[in-house]
Every structure is written in structure tokens, then in C-alpha cells.
Write a structure and sequence with these properties.
With 286 residues, the chain is mainly β. Helix content is 8%, strand content 65%. It is built from two helices and 17 strands. The model is unreliable at 1-18 (pLDDT under 50). InterPro entries: Beta-barrel_OMP.
């Protein structure tokens, strides 16, 4: 027992003697990986699927890494994703136009094991967690009135409603995978530049959503607004709710419009990052 304690102490002291800490800052762009169906596009002749991932977009990261020896280390990273627009619904028919996109605005963190294959080439893999943020849906809808609807509103035939709204979707905290392979170039004993290919494997289960903006105008055929804010956040149309909760089970007799079945949405991506690293002096050098 005494010998084991002495050996363990020697290993720990050796690691502390070598210990090196470094801090990295990077930015990059990620593309959709294993894109799933996000919506549909519709015109007078056909209907098609729209695929993608909310993980696509620009990101920034800050990472702290602790090396135990020449090869192995561990890091903790925090990042922000500014997702690109993903098509949720696109409709172009004679009486209806819809353009609905959604994009991620997400904060995340990861913890990884780092291994240096050479002095310049390294790899890391670990767990990925979304800490906060939202998926923001921005929707435009134009619907031309039927003759009966135009008469009911007292407007000429060819008039239409024009609706714009924003809905924020939130999800349960997920756990995913992150892996990267990188190359670094030393500028001096403290600073180095790096480029890396990074993969995120993660999906998000929806928890709730809430309307952030809502407005419907009644518009004449020549584009003149006849009635401004006919509907608003304080006066939503029938069947539209301000907040929706997503659940795993829903009764077949459910009449509550504020509850819908949950679904998973993809955030997986494959991207390229560029950054700079600052290495603190090793303890052995002090």
C-alpha cells in the first residue's frame, strides 16, 4: 500500500511538473451534416422536401486546454453559433405566398480529451452540450381573399392579408459528440496559429415555443394598407396561440391548441475553424 501511494504521488508530481496550460480563440463556419427534413417547398406543379441542419452557420469559440504530458490533455470550450437561414416552408401559388425560415442562435460547451500525434498535428473528441439560445422562425404569409372574404371585409376583390411573425423555439438540454483533427503552426514559444476540421453530432428535442412578434395587415390590390394590425400579439386569430408546449403523448381527443407533439431537430454539422493559441510557460521551465 505504501509503495502504491509513493508511485501515485510520483506520477502526480511528474504531471504537475510538466503541466502546460493554453488558451485558444477561434472562428469558423460549419455546414449541415446528415441533414434531415426541415420543411417543404410548394408551387403549382409540385411539392418538394427541404433538408438541412440548424447547426449550419458561423461560430466563435474560446477554449482552455491542460496538458498532463507531451501527448495527452483535456480541454473545456465555450462557443456561440450564429446559424444560417433554413427553409421551413416556401409556398408559391396563385392565391398564397409563404416564406418561412428558421435559424439557430445557440450557446454551447464541450469537454474533450486532446491527443497530440506530432508536435503539429492533434486530435480531440468528447461531449457536446447546448447551454442556451433558441431556434428563431421568421414567417411571411400573403393570402388573397376569396370573393366572400373580400365582401366581409368591405374591400375590393384581389385584396389580401399580409402576416409577419417571429416565433422562438426552445429545447431540452441535449448531449452530443464533438470530434476534431487539427494542425498548428508555432509562431514563437507562446503563440501559434491553427486550423482544424470539426464535427458536431447532436440533435435537439423541442420543449416549447413562443410568439415574439405578430402582425397582420389588410392590403388592397394596389398595395395600399387598408387596415393596419388587424391581428397582433394582443389580438391573435382563432387557432393561433402565443405559447406552445411540446409533449411526447397527446390524446386523440385533445382540443388544446397550445399543446403539440414534440420532435427532434438536427444540429449536426461539419466545419472548419481558424484560430490562435497562447501557451503559458510549462512548470518545468520555471
Amino acid at each position: 500500500m505504501k509503495h502504491s501511494i509513493i508511485a501515485l504521488t510520483a506520477i502526480v508530481m511528474s504531471g504537475l511538473a510538466y503541466a502546460q496550460v493554453q488558451v485558444s480563440v477561434s472562428t469558423g463556419y460549419a455546414f449541415a451534416s446528415a441533414g434531415m427534413k426541415l420543411g417543404e417547398t410548394v408551387n403549382v406543379s409540385e411539392t418538394g422536401n427541404s433538408y438541412g441542419s440548424y447547426g449550419e452557420g458561423a461560430n466563435v469559440q474560446i477554449r482552455g486546454t491542460y496538458f498532463f504530458n507531451e501527448s495527452f490533455g483535456a480541454d473545456l470550450s465555450f462557443g456561440y453559433l450564429q446559424g444560417t437561414d433554413q427553409t421551413v416552408s416556401e409556398v408559391n401559388t396563385p392565391n398564397t405566398d409563404v416564406n418561412a425560415v428558421a435559424r439557430a442562435r445557440a450557446f454551447g460547451a464541450s469537454t474533450s480529451v486532446v491527443y497530440k500525434f506530432t508536435n503539429n498535428i492533434y486530435g480531440r473528441f468528447g461531449a457536446l452540450l447546448k447551454l442556451g439560445g433558441k431556434t428563431e422562425a421568421v414567417v411571411y404569409r400573403k393570402a388573397v381573399f376569396s370573393e366572400a372574404e373580400a365582401d366581409a371585409f368591405g374591400v375590393p376583390e384581389g385584396s389580401y392579408s399580409e402576416t409577419n411573425y417571429t416565433e422562438d423555439f426552445h429545447g431540452h438540454f441535449p448531449l452530443g459528440f464533438v470530434g476534431a483533427l487539427g494542425y498548428k503552426f508555432d509562431l514563437d514559444s507562446n503563440f501559434s496559429l491553427f486550423v482544424e476540421a470539426e464535427y458536431y453530432g447532436i440533435s435537439l428535442k423541442r420543449k416549447d415555443s413562443e410568439l415574439a412578434e405578430f402582425n397582420t395587415n389588410i392590403v388592397l390590390p394596389d398595395g395600399t394598407v387598408a387596415v393596419e394590425s388587424f391581428y397582433s400579439l394582443d389580438n391573435l386569430p382563432d387557432g393561433t396561440v402565443r405559447k406552445t408546449t411540446y409533449v411526447d403523448n397527446l390524446s386523440n381527443t385533445n382540443t388544446d391548441d397550445s399543446k403539440k407533439l414534440s420532435q427532434k431537430v438536427p444540429y449536426s454539422s461539419f466545419g472548419i475553424n481558424f484560430g490562435i493559441t497562447y501557451k503559458f510557460k510549462k512548470r518545468a521551465d520555471k
